[in-house]
Amino acid sequence: MSEIKLTDIPIIGFSGADVPDSGVINTCVHCGLCLPACPTYRITGSELSSPRGRIYLMKGVSEGRVSLDDGVFVDQMSQCLNCRACEAVCPSGVQYGGILEASRAQIQRIRDSGHEMTNLPPTTQVRTAIKTPIGERLIRRFVFGALFKNMGLFRAFSRGMKIYQKIGLQTFARKTGLIKLFGMAESEAMLPAISKQFTVPTGQVFAASAGIKATRRVALMPGCIMSTVFAHVHDATIRVLQKNGCDVVLPGGQGCCGALHTHGGDMDGGRELARKNIAAMEAAGLDNFEAIIINAAGCGSTLKEYAHMLRDDPAWHARAEKFVAKVRDIHEFLAAIVLNTADLKPLPLVVTYQEPCHMAHAQRITTQPRKLLKSIPLLKLIEMQESAMCCGSAGIYNLTEPEMAGQLGSRKVSNALATGASVIATGNPGCAMQLANELRKAGKHVQVKYVVELLDESYRGQTDA
Fold it and tell me: Which residues of 417-446 are buried (b: 16+ CB within 10 A; e: fewer)?
């Protein structure tokens, strides 16, 4: 038998920071009501691919019956979409997202430490080497450690992607097969067209529309992808808020919300970005804002969890609570005020609505987007089947688990196309990119738009093709 190194010995139990809360794990009564709501269970039919099964694995690790580096445990923590659909239907109120993210943080820590499982005896119930490959470590370091933490770098990268598309390099790379050669065909296909100017927040104030009395002062959270690739959605959001009597402020110093970091197991990275955004909003005059507006579901969910993320930080927890109390999803905010319907003009479109998971399940915002769509004259809203089932985007899930993501994306688009709608409305960048990519693969010329874009088009009396 070959020599067994200390780094090859199974790791028993959770340890260190970000340990999954045993109280939350034990709240699960194993009733199984979460199973029909779980996308991966619906696809696989496997008990372990359900929230109940994954909680069973977490409990096994916490009690020392399953090693932290067990292949089944590692795979299932990765396969989960973290869509939070289970939370929305759980009668016991299990806060599943928190224990999943903590489990991923535990796994990522030992992966980055170089732990290997190659020399264990044949009887060991471990089937997956867990060491992070050097290439993946370098990519993670660049993407999560630099790109998403430096908005100057992020915007430069986005401009590079814009040039890549504009001068024909994208077309050349696709036609010559270079993208396939580097194994990036699926991920590159997700890149949307980047054509708008970037919204660069440096403290700009956009006053309420002419002829409309300013009754509210709000801050808009620009974020990273939303302020570059989806800058046009920010433009639409600002115009809609202006039409509803809002002075809109874009505080400087903001950046990525940290959603991708926390979902991927980099809790420290997520907390670092949370502190940065809280400080930026405080510097801009947090107390003077009625609300902090967010127009991306995944970002909004994370912003609303800053107090939980910083619960063990006495210097920041109270500040985070004050910040969170102001955060409002754009649909949530508009549906709660007296909407300016007098200026809405007819928009004769057939629309179906795809519910972003972190809006419907994590934030429990479901009726508000529909209410806004129904307020638009001549717009016909047709509900699709399984509108709240995950589309497979889930942050970077469509890159890390492309097979499952593809099945879910295809299923979502099929349900949307069955309605006969010419527009699929949504409220999250990942969903928008996933839906657009699946529509391209299906050869269907159906548009994907944000709900707030449709409102903006109605206010302006024109449909943007």
Answer: bebebebbbbbbbbbbbbbbbbbeeeeeeb
